Each structure stands twice: as structure tokens, then as C-alpha cells.
Amino acid sequence: MWAYVSTLSVHKDGATPEECEDAAGVVPVIESDEPTDGAVSVAVSDGASESLLAGPWARLLVESTVEAVRAKPEVLHSDSGFARVVLDAVDDWDEWLAAYIAGREAEDRPIKWYEQPGLDRGAYATLLAFHLTDVGLWHAAALGDSCLFQVRSDRLLRAFPVETAVALGTSPALLNSRNRNEGLIASKAGLANGDYEEGDQFFLGTDAIAHWFLSEVEQDDCPWEVLRDLSAIGSQEAFAKWVADERASGRMKNDDVTLVHVDLG
User: Fold this and answer.
1) Which of 45, 257, 231, 224 is CA-nearest to residue 130?
2) Per CATH, which fold does 2-263 belong to?
3) How does pLDDT run across 124-141, given as a tens digit for each residue?
4) What is the pTM of this model?
């Protein structure tokens, strides 16, 4: 099965691109207009802005997760397997944080006393991991409110892990970069799986676009049509303009927005 994969992202109003706390990772790395014939692994994360270094933690989470899932897809078959993927990222975080602190010192910008409590508490983020096999099946695992939508024959077939707009609250479960409690992580994780057919589309996104998507579905609209068209254009500028228009209309909240589209059409 041939798959086209595209990633689009835009930061919140009032922030810079460097301050975006969303992250997405895809393997294999391919251009959006070039199909891949084989397995695809995707991870999406939304860093919690209330925590220090949420953006770097989200980026590390997706990078570590897609490589882990690519190497051993069965980690998404159980909540304990997913938890072990997260714990590997926590180990990587320790190394990243040590390098960050050393870099600050080398630049004569040592960690301030008021930053230390935030570093001690750790960074927080959601995580959604997805693997499309080459034998007609898919598996996903999630903690938090980054969402996956599967569309078939112009209807929403599956929404995971959140199924209604109202369920996308302001206090989702989050992964902490200091948490090494495998059982706790596993207990909060959700799992999903299914099959796919030619023509199916998968949309993975952080909470702002997930809320918009579900709200549109609940009004009997077909939000996948506009997202499919934006993905086909493949322009970050066009995506940013569309997001700005949706924010201005009140249909989308002002937050970082990230979308990964896996098109099997």
C-alpha cells in the first residue's frame, strides 16, 4: 500500500516559531509528494507551556518514540510496552538536560535560582504514537489529548483517544520527564488498533486542531476535506493562513497547531 505523509505546523499567535511547543516525528523521512511503500511510524506531542522546557521535551519524546516504534512495532500492542518507550525517552532527557545546563554555563548564562525548581519538577507533554504496518493493520498508543482520526469512504471511522470535542478539556494527562514509574505511565495510557484499506486517511494532531476537527464533525461537516486539500498543497504558509482564519472566526483556539496526514488514497 502506497502512503503519502505530510506534516504541517504553526505556532500560536504572539509567539515565535522557535517557541512552538508542539512536535511531530515521522519515519521513514520522505517528502510529502513522494509516496512510501511500507510501514510508517508517527509520533505527535504537545508540550505543556506551564512547565519549563516543554518544547524540547516534546521534540525529544517524538524523536525517541518513532525510532523505538520503527525498531519494535509491538511496543504499541500493550500499555507496558508503551510505558517502556516513554522511560527510554526519560533516560535520554537526563543526557539532554545535562548538555543544556553545560551549554548555558559555557555561554555565561548559568541556571538561575528561580529556574531550578522548574528543572527539578521536569517538563510535561502529551504523546500519541502510531504505526501503520505493511500488512493492512495499524496500532496506536496515547497519553493525553493529542488525537488520531481515521476516515474511510468520507466518514469518520475512528477517533482516538478522545471522541468528543467537550472531552478535550484543559487538564489532560501528561508525561513528565522525571517520571520513572512504569506502572503509573501504563495505567494512564490508552491503546487502539484497526485495519486500513486503500483510500483511508489518518489525521494526527495536537489538541487545538483535534478540538476543531471534532467540533466540525459534531456539526455534520467533513473537516477532513479541508485538511486533505491543505496537505495536498503542502504549503506551511497556506496552512498558517488557514489556521489564522479559523482562530479569527473563533472556531479554533489560539494554541500551537500540528497536523500529520497519512493518505492511503
Assistant:
1) 45
2) Phosphatase 2c; domain 1 (3.60.40)
3) 999 999 999 988 999 999
4) 0.94
